[in-house]
């Protein structure tokens, strides 16, 4: 049995040290191992477990019950939801794996794994042909009746002949139609020696199979795409057609002291200002059919906590906001409130009251609220925000710990922040996963190391030059880049593959969509992945 879930293994409190403790890689799965990506990707969403000693044991054989439990859970099948209770001689109803085995048997996915005496043999290592059979039976159950009949009536033989595995004759005849359907669907792959039907399935192979299944399932789930057009994003104006929503970051809070506040569009040091020629941007959004949100930015430099505690100033601000939202020149469909740095729990009620006041002046237009992960920020009542807002954007890209040379958006913490936000009461159909396109560059070594966050275009140009080593960073699952110029450089880069993984996380948890911060940082390869989201 797997002894400790990754969530427990990597638990910790909200400190830099605890942040690191949640990101300890398995001691026996390195970044250059072929199975590293599926193992760490599944571990991030707690779909696969490690052991209490910190290992994963990638080469250990997986038992029948372990695999069927993983497969059934990945399929979304609910134990006890379908059919009568299943009685097995060697699997008692109180056994840890029984609910998932029962669910699989009720759906006729693993009938062939029960012998004539009613034994399932849960501890026996599962063989590759049994894995292929179970996966194929599950996938065929989802096919249309006519397609399933055609396959079972002989269609599978064409697949067998086309594959021409050297060991095809070794596949048990009753399992073959289902096994070859799993192969056709890309769930299992052969090798030079063939399908190797009698070999046991290792834990790393199981991770790869389940990862393929989860990606297949997730790919069918629709997502909305929101792009933040802010700071320096003119280079992405032609990408509006890939968006459902564009959030225009041109306004900020101007708190002028007791009882005085307004929406402002000039003089913000964070560049949340109305640019010259803004009409070209709104025209591009209108042409592409993307809805437009007005983004209101504020953080501690705007004295945001004092403002929220000033009821009179909030009222004045809401009136100022309403005038711009209703201005026909912009054609806004809603407002996105991006108030950051609310560390104090005392801000919760004030922020909730402020959102209520904003919604009251929107005249039916949509309210979106951006929130940070709640590791450090306690001024957000997520349940109340989820109830008031039409959409909630989780800014899951602010985990950086410079002292420990850690990246801004490691996949395990992105996934954990999604789970935390959902558990806090934000409905999944309202939650949007924010994806930050950022590079964390550490220059030199030790306590004197410098830090930089170069533009994506600069990183892409450096990658074209000689002397660059690249790998998959584990367990972060960003691109790991190393090179030496005047000093040693280590970079964690949010490349297209990393963005794809976060899109998958949004689908895995059934979220409303993804949001891109900010559009000007995304490069051509990233937009190709985003285009694929819209095409589905």
From TrEMBL:
A Gene Ontology molecular function term of the record: hydrolase activity, acting on glycosyl bonds
Domain GH18: 224-536
Matches recorded under Pfam families: Glyco_hydro_18 (PF00704), SLH (PF00395)
Signal peptide: 1-18
Gene that produces this protein: ydhD_2
Domain SLH: 22-85, 87-149, 162-224
Keyword Signal: yes
Keyword Signal: yes
Matches recorded under PANTHER family: CHITINASE DOMAIN-CONTAINING PROTEIN 1, CHITINASE DOMAIN-CONTAINING PROTEIN 1 FAMILY MEMBER
EC number: 3.2.-.-
Gene3D superfamilies with a match to the protein in the record: Glycosidases (3.20.20.80)
Keyword annotations: Glycosidase, Hydrolase, Signal
Name of the protein: Sporulation-specific glycosylase YdhD
Highest taxon, organism lineage: Bacteria
InterPro entries associated with the record: Chitinase_II/V-like_cat (IPR011583), GH (IPR017853), Glyco_hydro18_cat (IPR001223), SLH_dom (IPR001119)
């Amino acid at each position: 049995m797997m002894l400790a879930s990754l969530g427990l293994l990597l638990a910790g409190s909200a400190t830099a040290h605890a942040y690191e403790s949640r990101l300890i890689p398995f001691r026996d799965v390195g970044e250059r191992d072929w199975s590293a990506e599926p193992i760490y990707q599944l571990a991030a969403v707690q779909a696969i477990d490690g052991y209490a000693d910190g290992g994963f044991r990638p080469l250990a054989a997986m038992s029948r019950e372990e695999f069927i439990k993983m497969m059934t859970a990945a399929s979304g099948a609910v134990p006890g939801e379908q059919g009568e209770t299943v009685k097995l001689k060697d699997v008692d109803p109180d056994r840890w794996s029984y609910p998932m085995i029962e669910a699989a048997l009720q759906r006729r996915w693993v009938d062939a794994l029960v012998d004539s005496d009613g034994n399932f043999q849960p501890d026996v290592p599962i063989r590759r042909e049994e894995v292929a059979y179970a996966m194929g039976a599950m996938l065929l159950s989802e096919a249309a009746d006519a397609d399933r009949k055609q396959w079972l009536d002989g269609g599978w033989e064409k697949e067998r002949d086309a594959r021409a595995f050297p060991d095809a004759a070794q596949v048990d005849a009753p399992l073959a139609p289902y096994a070859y359907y799993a192969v056709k669907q890309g769930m299992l792959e052969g090798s030079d020696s063939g399908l190797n039907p009698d070999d046991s399935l290792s834990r790393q192979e199981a991770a790869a199979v389940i990862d393929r299944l989860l990606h297949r399932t997730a790919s069918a789930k629709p997502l909305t795409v929101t792009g933040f057009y802010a700071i320096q994003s003119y280079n992405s104006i032609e990408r509006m057609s890939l968006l459902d929503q564009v959030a225009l970051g041109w306004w900020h809070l101007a708190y002028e002291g007791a009882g005085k506040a307004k929406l402002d569009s000039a003089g913000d040091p964070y560049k949340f200002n109305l640019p010259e020629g803004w009409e070209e941007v709104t025209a591009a959004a209108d042409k592409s059919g993307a809805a437009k949100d007005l983004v209101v930015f504020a953080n501690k430099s705007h004295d945001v906590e004092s403002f929220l505690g000033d009821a009179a100033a909030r009222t004045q601000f809401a009136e100022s906001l309403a005038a711009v939202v209703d201005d026909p020149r912009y054609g806004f469909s809603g407002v996105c409130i991006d108030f950051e740095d609310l560390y104090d729990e005392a801000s919760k009620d004030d922020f909730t009251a402020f959102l209520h006041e904003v919604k009251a002046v929107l005249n039916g237009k949509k309210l979106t609220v951006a929130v940070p992960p709640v590791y450090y920020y306690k001024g957000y009542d997520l349940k109340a925000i989820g109830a008031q807002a039409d959409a909630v954007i989780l800014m899951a890209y602010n985990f950086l710990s410079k002292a420990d040379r850690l990246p801004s958006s490691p996949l395990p913490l992105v996934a954990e922040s999604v789970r935390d936000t959902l558990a806090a009461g934000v409905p999944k159909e309202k939650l949007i996963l924010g994806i930050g396109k950022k590079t964390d560059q550490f220059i030199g070594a030790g306590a004197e190391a410098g830090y930089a966050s170069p533009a994506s275009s600069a990183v892409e140009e450096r990658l074209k030059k000689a002397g660059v080593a690249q790998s998959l960073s584990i367990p972060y699952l960003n691109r790991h880049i190393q090179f030496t110029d005047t000093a040693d450089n280590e970079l964690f880069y949010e490349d297209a593959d990393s963005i794809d993984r976060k899109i998958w996380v949004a689908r895995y948890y059934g979220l409303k969509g993804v949001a891109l911060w900010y559009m000007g940082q995304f490069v051509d390869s990233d937009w190709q992945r985003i285009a694929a989201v819209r095409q589905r």
